[in-house]
Design brief:
By secondary structure, the protein is of the alpha/beta class. The chain is built from 12 helices and 10 strands. The protein has one domain: TIM Barrel. The protein is globular, with a radius of gyration of 17 Å.
Amino acid sequence: MDWGMKNRLEQLIPNGKCFFLPIDHGYFQGPTRCLEKPGETIKPLLEFCDGLFVSRGVLRACVDPQNTKPIILRVSGGTSMVGKDLANEAVTTSIAEIIRLNASAVGISVFVGSDYEHQTLLNLAKLVNECEDYGIPVMAVTAVGKELEKRDARYLGLACRIAAELGARIVKTYWCKEDFDKVVAGCPVPVVIAGGPKCETELEVLEFVYDGMQKGAIGINLGRNVWQSSHPVAMARALRAIIHENASVKKAQQIFQDEAKRTLKK
């Protein structure tokens, strides 16, 4: 691994752990709740995250160029929630654009088991071929589209391993209650946990993140469960404690409650 690749990964994953904050949802969902004005949403949260996962349009229009957080650029798309199939994606961003925007990494979705499996896996392979020449790490996102029932260990383990085999430096995947440790163990590159749909309670989020970290994940890529929380800053602070301070669920919940109370007093 050359110096540039090592340097970018060290910035994104300090001390081997990471908290990525995704705000790329609009690329297929449109103006998602709490992301109508992405720049305002992320302002109080940036100090807690290690990287921002964002599309080029929102990066240019909404993210302060003085932001010092590493950027993970979303580079796949071409579908929407109202279309026939979310899996029918292509690479949307050139390597020249990736370099011009000073991205520390790029993220691309793969849809294993879908009608577009071959297409999206080749998208990943071709992107890796281009990005490796410039020392830019590729994060593969094991997406499942609207078919959330696919999120079991057998499927996730298959998708993660294939993404790693094709050259992804990091794999983002869903947490599953049973055998998540096997998903991680079968993937030879670092695994970060995706957030998925909004959870019912903050405790539920803290519990699955803690469990995933205990079972080998190096961090998280959570969006909705942070910025759609009733107390986003408190949630971000609590999650950072689990990831970077090895806090227990009980300790993280206390951090959340204390920060929420402090915010309400302002």
